[in-house]
Write a structure and sequence with these properties.
The complex is a heterodimer.
Chain A lengths: L15 H4 L36 H13 L21 H7 L2 H4 L11 H18 L3 E3 L5 H18 L6 E5 L5 H8 L3 E5 L7 H7 L4 E7 L11 H10 L3 E6 L18 E4 L19 E3 L11 E5 L2 E5 L16 H37 L15 E3 L10 H10 L6 E2 L9 E3 L7 H20 L2 H5 L11 H6 L10
Helix pairs in contact in A: 3-10, 5-10, 6-7, 10-12
Chain B lengths: L7 H11 L29 H13 L8 E2 L12 H7 L2 H4 L11 H18 L3 E2 L6 H15 L5 E5 L4 H11 L5 E5 L1 E2 L2 E2 L1 H7 L4 E7 L10 H10 L3 E6 L11 H4 L3 E5 L15 E5 L12 E5 L5 E5 L6 H4 L12 H38 L5 E2 L8 E5 L4 H9 L3 E2 L2 E2 L10 E5 L6 H11 L5
Parallel strand pairs in B: 1-15, 3-4, 3-7, 7-8, 8-9
Antiparallel strand pairs in B: 2-10, 5-6, 9-10, 11-12, 13-14, 14-17, 16-17
Chain lengths: ~475, ~450
């Protein structure tokens, strides 16, 4: 049915299955150049019921239209806290698509893929230099898998010493992946409260001989550098534990501070955050992990090593925790990250960090009077406000949805949990002063609307593809796939 | 630097507004003994053209499958990718967005994932599929963890030796500190040995895991395995490394699988030296709430208009923390899009025809090699596009000899299977022409090509 109910050019689009017409095709296959052969019919399936049948044009129009309902970094400002939504350079995309990278099979003999191995080896070393660690594995597929790898190495290290430690300390400001990763290694999680930053005393109070490690995010999810980190690391080490750092916020530290120099034993990187690889609508990311010398034997295998003038994959690692995925890592993402490092150089990486911190502090300075700032310490790459100053019972969710009407992607909301109605803003370094001013003007206008016309917040968004969605019903009566009406 | 828009004047204005005199002051929250007071030891910034020149030279140091007669498979498959796929995924509204936390401005990603979930269900014969896992191997490990959670006190998992060795290794890495006993089921003629399986199954077994097709290319008798596994109260996990086979062979869900996981790289994702690919994960309704990872569901907005949202989030780490079904957060969003587009293009007929072409090409290669003196097709059972050849001498020497003739003959099985020291795993897809297959056969026979 044709209807003119969409606003402007925000048109509707049926599901693939609803557009399907029997007999329509969107492919071309070469004629079979060998004799026809078919398996035993008893093993074969019938046709794939209700699978789509579409032309190439149908498919192009379908996905093109879907794309117009999305908001990406290329659409505009995307200040999603802790996600580091910086610009994704186009040269990275071109590099990853070079046939010599995109069309190489992982089972090819190592001698025939020396370029790929050299790239990985160099990237490992570059990441080690930026972070101060002895060695880096590129294998983990994403940050959470990097955490898992890091915690497995910690557990393996303890077990090799005959230690059956079963607890991990995690501050209440941590990402949910931290406790989930620790649990996946069989650890019990001890949560410690923090007051902005964690104190030496709060850690000392729970540190004992059963604690394998502390997992800390630095700077933490409030954007604050853990100022006692050196003393805390010493305290953990004195009692035989190790310190894991979540590198989600590493964009605040490049060229400024190296975790490996200050007592951290393991850290993962999020290449899709700090090193500009695209977030892809939710991945693929890459979560390399750096370790101090003590932990090198436990790295997942294989490890890329240099042997004379050539590069190879070393599988002979008797203490390795093993592999966590097929092959060697998200190579296509690694190419993009390496391309970024080449483009910025050492000085450029530091400048990126400086401007990211400048931008966040500028947002803070512009909004501090109107939005409530629960933690007053000097913050780095992101700033977290609470909803407490909003008038007329307007909440963080309402502000977020109203920002959509102003043409911005909302910040991260309701995280970290220690702030009531958190609005977590991370502008990144690739945004200009004009853009940030526009965004701050919008947030100030929204705070004003909350006082004078709160319904504008409650009704928002009104200018998006859809209005607020009924998430409760979605969860109560899950409909997770399309099915034909029969 | 072209990605950094700040002018000196603007930097000064911003510093003034903040109330500090220079950028270094902004870092005063970092204690001095935590500061790096030297420049990073990295090369200077390069221009775009210099960067591309350097990367191009590294890329040229690699071997593209298109430069060779390549018969490599083993978990990564060389299939043709229609131009439409890269054209569409290059739309930056898709690839520069993140996880669709704000559904009102993410309906494109959400609807595409909902369609992806549906097509994975249709292919696997299952009820519910999630929005993706990292890859087939880690999806397989997460499937084992789901079975352990669902199996209450059962702590034993049986892994077929014919399951992809990298999947087995990954399962073992994931389970190493969780007090889970992993036991391998031996092989009989290239497939899971049913008698051994029967003997190993007991009231402690939470799951049986088999490949379909398995690593040796064979089509396992999933229905029979499901029967005995279920009789013992165990779940059956079926792992699919080459999902194109599912367009031709019976869907695992139809054969009794409780969980179907696998690798979707075959469907439109570049080989890219083994990553990123995409893991898929599908279950029957009864296990819906035990699923790891993201799920997209259909709902309506305030005006009653159809829309999509992330749902059942109370399973996930950002809500449930250490009690979550998994620690997974970012998954393979971009790759779900590639797979969705590829499947939509090929559709019901195209996917079947493509699978039949793969089958026929492999059957031809198999028959030609079977006729060579000194070579045997190791296993008689039905296979899809991969099969094992027993070679007359050292597989390593043979591979080197064929490499010199421009042929990547396959994968040596000796490292993973002691009994198959002279085994070569050969993979044939639609990308291999008859001429390429004939050259392989001639070269195996010792001739020059």
């Amino acid at each position: 049915m044709i209807s003119a109910e969409g606003r402007g050019l925000v048109l509707d689009e049926k599901l693939l299955f609803e557009q399907s017409r029997e007999g329509r095709v969107g492919y071309s296959l070469a004629k079979l150049d060998v004799p026809v052969a078919l398996p035993d019919g008893a093993l074969c399936r019938d046709e794939i019921t209700d699978f789509p049948e579409l032309s190439e044009v149908d498919v192009i129009r379908h996905y093109t239209r879907l794309s117009t309902w999305n908001y990406g970094v290329d659409s505009g400002f995307y200040p999603l806290g802790s996600c580091t939504m910086k610009y994704n350079p186009k040269v990275n995309e071109a590099a990853a698509r070079l046939p010599g990278f995109a069309e190489i099979h992982p089972q090819t003999p190592e001698a025939l893929n020396q370029g790929a191995l050299e790239l990985m080896y160099t990237l490992q070393n570059n990441l080690a230099e930026v972070s101060g660690f002895q060695e880096v594995t590129l294998q983990p597929a994403a940050g959470a898998q990097g955490e898992f790898v890091g915690m497995l190495m910690i557990r393996a290290w303890h077990e090799a010493r005959g230690q059956k430690r079963n607890k991990v300390i995690i501050p209440d400001t941590a990402h949910g992946t931290n406790p989930a990763s620790a649990a996946l290694c069989g650890y019990e999680v001890i949560t410690v409260a923090s007051d902005g930053v964690i104190s030496k005393e709060s850690i000392a109070a729970v540190m004992d001989d059963d604690v394998a490690a502390l997992m800390v995010t630095n700077p933490n999810t409030l954007g604050l550098f853990e100022s006692d980190i050196r003393e805390i690391c010493d305290l953990i080490h004195e009692r035989g534990g190790l310190v894991y750092s979540d590198g989600a916020n590493f964009n605040a530290l490049m060229g400024v501070s190296r975790p490996g120099d200050i007592g951290i034993d393991v850290m993962h990187f999020n290449l899709h955050k700090t090193f500009s690889t695209p977030h892809g609508g939710g991945g693929p990311g890459a979560g390399p992990v750096g370790v101090v010398e003590e932990l090198v034997p436990y790295l997942p295998k294989p490890v890329v090593v240099k042997d004379g003038d050539s590069y190879k994959l070393d599988y002979d690692r008797p203490n390795s925790i093993g592999r966590v995925k097929s092959f060697y890592g998200h190579f296509g993402i690694l190419v993009r990250a390496y391309c970024y490092i080449l483009s910025l150089g050492g000085e450029g990486l530091k400048r990126a960090t400086e401007l990211a911190v400048l931008n966040a502090n500028y947002v803070r300075a512009r909004l501090e009077g109107e939005y409530s700032l629960p933690y007053q310490q000097r913050s780095l790459h992101e700033v977290v406000f609470s909803e407490s100053a909003l008038a007329n019972e307007c909440h963080t969710l309402d502000v977020a949805k109203r920002l959509i009407d102003y043409g911005f992607h909302p910040p991260t909301i309701y995280f970290p949990l220690v702030v009531a109605g958190a609005l977590m803003i991370e502008p990144t370094e690739t945004e200009s002063k004009q853009m940030i001013d526009d965004f701050c003007d919008a947030l100030l206008a929204i705070a004003e609307e909350a006082k004078t016309a709160p319904e504008k917040l409650k009704m928002a968004p009104v200018r998006a593809k859809v209005k607020r969605l009924d998430e409760a019903t979605a969860a109560r009566k899950p409909k997770l796939r399309w099915e034909a009406d029969r | 630097m072209r990605y950094l828009p700040h002018t000196d004047v603007e930097v000064q204005q911003m510093l003034d507004q903040i109330g500090v005199s220079n950028i270094d002051e902004l870092f005063s929250g970092i204690p001095e003994d935590c500061r790096l007071r030297r420049p990073l030891d990295l090369p200077d910034a390069k221009s775009e053209s210099e960067t591309m020149t350097l990367l191009r030279s590294l890329a040229e140091g690699n071997s593209k499958v298109s430069d060779w007669d390549s018969f490599l498979g083993g978990g990564a498959y060389n299939h043709f990718i229609p131009s439409v796929v890269d054209h569409l995924v290059s739309r930056s509204e898709f690839y520069t967005a993140y996880t669709p936390y704000q559904p009102e401005i993410s309906q494109g990603t959400l609807q595409a994932i909902f369609e992806f979930q549906t097509m994975i269900c249709q292919l696997t014969g299952m009820d519910v599929a999630n929005a993706s896992m990292y890859d087939g191997a880690s999806a397989c490990a997460e499937a084992v963890l789901l079975a352990i959670r669902a199996g209450k006190k059962r702590r034993k998992v049986l892994l077929s030796q014919a399951l992809n060795p990298q999947y087995r290794e990954t399962v073992s890495t994931y389970c190493q500190f969780l007090d889970i006993e992993l036991v391998e089921i031996p092989l009989s003629t290239g497939a899971t040995d049913h008698e051994s399986l029967n003997n190993l199954l007991d009231d402690q077994t939470a799951a049986v895991v088999v490949g379909y097709p398995n690593y040796l290319g064979q089509i396992e008798d999933v229905a029979a395995i499901a029967d005995v596994a279920h009789a013992a109260g165990s779940k059956l996990i079926v792992a699919v490394a080459e999902p194109l086979a599912l367009a031709l062979f019976k869907a695992p869900g139809e054969l009794g699988a409780d969980v179907v996981v696998g690798e979707g790289q075959s469907f439109g994702i570049p080989l890219s030296y083994g990553g990123p690919g995409i893991g898929f994960f599908a279950v029957k309704k009864k296990d819906m709430r035990g699923l790891p990872g993201r799920l997209v569901g259909e709902t309506v907005d305030q005006d009653g208009k159809r829309g999509f949202v992330l749902t059942l989030a109370t399973r996930e780490q950002h809500i449930r923390r250490e009690k979550a079904t998994s620690n997974i957060c970012s998954n393979q969003g971009m790759c779900t899009l590639m797979v969705g587009i590829y499947l939509a293009l090929h559709g019901k007929q195209g996917l079947r025809q493509l699978a039949e072409i793969n089958y026929a090409k492999a059957a031809y290669a198999r028959e030609q090699i079977a006729g060579l003196e000194g070579y045997d097709i190791t296993f008689d059972g039905e296979s899809f596009n991969e099969f094992v050849v027993t070679c007359p001498g050292s597989v390593a020497d043979l591979k080197t000899r064929l490499e010199e003739q421009g042929i990547l003959a396959g994968i040596s099985l000796g490292r993973d299977y002691q009994d198959l020291e002279r085994g070569l795993l050969v993979c044939v897809t639609e990308q291999n022409s008859r001429e390429q297959i004939d050259r392989l056969v001639t070269a195996l026979a010792g001739g020059d090509v």
